[in-house]
């Protein structure tokens, strides 16, 4: 490419600086989780594992973590089903209102979370009479998670083409067998990538959760927000934050390998 | 072989498969049924119900909903100077955040897509994606610590702090679509522009920017929408400033006035719908 040396250098600088800005606050959080000073005095007077122990023993954290995992799994399963179905319909068929379907799927993340949150809670509360709880959280999360699965599967279907499925049908396999033996194995990694993103989206969500969770349901983000302004909980909040940062690396790496590791994309 | 058995002696499963194979419309309706029921009926229905509520009111004594039509909420919204200021301020914050993210994200995405080696690319994408998984609250909190008057930056809390924090929070949402868009852009086009005599800036203006515009718009949908609806970051670093989200939240919680909250919530929805309608033709929605 015909970029001047200065242009190249400044683009690289922008990238490195940008990543620096992204990571410095996260680094501070991780470092502070070992800070022996309760109020995060800077520079840290000493390092300790005491807060990690406290967080490990905290039942509030454990319960919230478990609730978050349940909500994330529930939402992911629903999003996988709905997203895959919609992606097949939009990619494999031509029909009236096809563009509207894509718009509809994008809408829950395109609209501000607070709108989705109060719309759903109002419907549960005053229209359907469903008590708010874990179930309503899952419904709320699934609504905005569909899009991640949809996009991944759509992209995969576009790339897959129809040849292999047609070959399978020519060899005598019926619709179900072709799906089981040909279509599904080819989509598996896209499903896993979409599902991981859906889980991540659900795991970190707080706004829709605030409105759709009943009084007793506390996901990890809700727990963090409740304890964020309590000075004596600050070290434990910080440990939870640091743990989330560290743990998040694994699924992201997997999702990336699965969706981007395909030689066809290059 | 199950397949040959299904061919020679069609059982119920085989007949169903054959039926589905012959009737594309039935397959399509089955595929669309659940997603449309969920998003078309339930979700749009919920939005519609909320919109209807905006024309109701609450009884000032009992706090119960009064289900009779009134324009009062929208009148309050339009005539109240406070609300107009807050709406404009929210819009301003969303625009500022989107622009800042665009200016920061574009060079980063370009370096990732066009300068880095394929191996480095994968690591860079992971580097940008990972912070998305770190809790939103934690990041806002980290900025609270840095912005506090004795913190590293020491700007104090307020609107500037809110804009900075929101820009930070949504930056990856802008980088990733632009990166994906630029990665799809064949490098040969850039070489061709160079061979035809275009310098860097001209190549950017006439080739790179027009072709990556849908991706930019896709990113801006995230940054814009996420900023418009936010009320939590404002609570953490915004000091006394309020955005639309806070007005909605306060009216649901403390004021227990769902109809007015619903009326206020239509403001970001209308802004987003206008925005989505305007950008639909660019193909941005396929880039999300």
From TrEMBL, chain A:
Cellular localisation: Cell membrane
Cross-referenced Pfam families: BPD_transp_1 (PF00528)
Statement: the UniProt record of this protein carries the keyword Cell cycle: no
Key words of the record: Cell membrane, Membrane, Transmembrane, Transmembrane helix, Transport
SUPFAM superfamilies assigned to the protein according to its UniProt record, in alphabetical order: MetI-like
InterPro entries linked to this entry: Bact_Polyamine_Transport, MetI-like, MetI-like_sf
Topology of the protein relative to the lipid bilayer: Multi-pass membrane protein
Transmembrane region(s): 12-34, 65-89, 101-120, 132-150, 190-216, 236-255
ABC transmembrane type-1 domain sequence ranges: 65-255
Cited PANTHER family: PUTRESCINE TRANSPORT SYSTEM PERMEASE PROTEIN POTI
Family named by the database record: Belongs to the binding-protein-dependent transport system permease family. CysTW subfamily.
Listed name of the protein: ABC transporter permease
